[in-house]
Design a protein that fits this description.
Elements: H1 2-18, E1 32-34, E2 38-46, E3 55-63, E4 66-72, E5 85-88, E6 92-96, E7 98-103, E8 106-110, E9 113-116, H2 118-127, E10 130-135, H3 142-152, E11 160-162, E12 168-169, E13 179-180, H4 184-197, E14 201-204, H5 210-222, E15 226-229, H6 236-242, E16 246-247, H7 273-276, H8 291-302, E17 306-309, H9 311-315, H10 332-347, H11 353-369, E18 374-376, H12 390-402, H13 406-421, E19 438-442, E20 455-460, E21 463-465, H14 467-472
Parallel strand pairs: 2-5, 2-6, 7-10, 10-11, 12-13, 14-15, 15-16, 16-17, 17-18
Antiparallel strand pairs: 1-21, 2-3, 3-4, 6-19, 8-9, 19-20, 20-21
Bound molecules: zinc ion.
Length: 481
């Protein structure tokens, strides 16, 4: 009897603890700017992440890491407890923390080497307003899983992280942690081993076979996990048939329309249909991209396959684009390395990206308008210049340049990411009962999307962080840690 009573008391304590704010680790403390059980942001414009119009002059109350109320700012502040911290949101906008799905904790540091910069990168993501993210490929094996565990238990100033296993790749990319799968049975072993070790998602890569992809998807799904892919040897249609959940890089990695495509082989020359897309005659709003492309999009929608936009990495390949933001975070050497490449890109007169980049934008908008689940990421690989946090904000700007409204682009970067990851009941929108993952920005991103860069405070689970303070700890040092 006594034992039962103690057990019930302990259960009550546990339930109470679950509703509490997180226990903030010592390494996180220096960056925290708001740490109080209850606070209110008053007179603030709210973009809730669902795509609904912004609401003016709202008050959002956060209690114990959750959104307790959202509504018009009361004319008298009678509801306010004397002990409640009040943040004046006049002229500012509150939007959900971003949920981005093609992030990395490594960076091309030269001569085919990817440096794992887990510390600086995870901090910079948080400083850019990302509160949840999936890594879209792991070049650090256990290191990446350990970082995710530390981030998720508040031992690091970082977003919540869904950590991928090392790539599922055939013989092709001989690099770092990348293992060459032998066959479908090998793919099954790979998935189960890394899931046992703590990986929570999977990524297939360019030289995987259809059988290996199908086997990997089956094993991942048995464990309630998802699999994405940056494909080449397998077409988008074949991947959807094999059970893939997500395709990376918009339609830039599609080999569906390569005339001489051989099964399970990555064709030379890669993507053609975006090159051949007649931009002048296609009208995205009326969905009149050429019919085979639209048929593929409808197939992906029917199969519930999400597509990830990673325009940021392709922008760095495209002549005539601005210098990407955040380069001052890099060491001098990495900055010089990127700038040499950037200048080379500007001098190029026959880059295929001059055509590919706007076509890729158009295809992504067409997918969104077809009812597809478009999600967003940045992919800090390529030739460098995609800087975590900064590039996530840039990615949202590029979605608007592509043709989405600012509210739609914000939805892609928040609710859609959460929906894909299956965490939409907890994060991704501003609503009562949801986790207080929030961005407080100066200005109005629903009118001017570039205002998203004016991030003043990012809240993860109701704990506020000062982006400037985080960035200061990293400035000039990406490349070291
Ligand atoms: Zn990637």
């Amino acid at each position: 009897m006594k034992f039962a009573r103690i057990a019930i008391a302990l259960a009550a304590v546990a339930a109470h603890a679950a509703a509490q704010r997180p226990t903030i680790g010592a390494a996180v403390r220096p960056y925290v700017s708001v740490d109080t059980p209850t606070f209110a942001i008053t007179h603030v414009r709210v973009i809730d992440g669902t795509g609904a119009p912004a609401k003016e002059d709202q008050t959002v109350v956060v209690t114990d890491g959750k959104i307790a109320s959202v509504g018009p700012t009361p004319s008298n502040q009678a509801t306010k407890q004397p002990s409640t911290l009040v943040i004046d949101g006049t002229g500012k906008t509150l939007m959900p923390g971003m949920v981005m799905v093609h992030e990395h904790l490594f960076y091309p540091s030269g001569q085919g080497v990817y440096g794992n910069f887990t510390e600086s990168f995870s901090r910079l993501y948080l400083a850019g307003g990302i509160t949840s993210m999936r890594t879209g490929g792991n070049m650090n094996g256990f290191g990446e899983l350990a970082l995710a565990r530390a981030a998720n238990s508040w031992q690091k100033a970082a977003p919540w992280i869904d950590a991928t296993a090392p790539y599922l790749e055939g013989p092709g990319l001989a690099l770092g942690q990348v293992y060459a799968l032998k066959d479908a049975a090998d793919a099954r072993r790979h998935v189960n081993y890394w899931a046992d070790m703590g990986a929570t998602s999977f990524k297939a890569y360019m030289h995987i076979s259809r059988d290996e992809l199908k086997a990997a998807a089956e094993e991942a799904h048995k464990r309630g996990l998802k699999i994405t892919g940056h494909l080449c040897s397998v077409t988008y249609r074949e991947a959807a048939e094999a059970g893939i959940d997500n395709l990376e890089h918009g339609f830039l990695a599609s080999t569906d329309f390569v005339a001489d495509k051989k099964p399970d082989e990555c064709p030379q020359g890669g993507n053609r249909f975006l090159m051949d897309l007649d931009l002048a005659s296609s009208n995205v709003e009326r969905q009149t991209l050429n019919e085979p492309v639209m048929a593929l999009m409808r197939f992906l929608v029917a199969k519930k396959v999400a597509v990830t936009s990673t325009l940021t990495v392709f922008e760095t390949f495209t002549p005539g684009r601005p210098v990407p933001p955040g380069l001052d975070m890099l060491t001098q050497e990495l900055r010089d390395q990127f700038m040499r490449r950037y200048e080379q890109t500007q001098r190029s007169t026959n880059s295929q990206y001059t055509k590919l980049f706007p076509s890729a934008m158009k295809a992504e908008v067409a997918f969104y308008r077809s009812g597809g689940l478009l999600v967003a990421g940045t992919d800090p690989t390529g030739g460098g210049g995609v800087i975590p946090g900064y590039s996530n904000q840039r990615q949202v700007e590029l979605l608007v340049e592509a043709g989405l409204t600012p509210l739609e682009a914000i939805k892609v970067a928040t609710l859609n990411g959460a929906s894909y990851l299956g965490i939409q009941d907890r994060v991704g929108t501003i609503a009562v009962g949801k986790q207080a993952d929030l961005m407080l920005v100066a200005g109005n991103p629903s009118a001017n999307i570039a205002d998203i860069r004016q991030l003043e405070t990012v809240f993860r689970q109701g704990v506020g962080f000062a982006p400037a303070k985080i960035r200061e700890s990293v400035q000039g040092r990406v490349g070291i840690f």
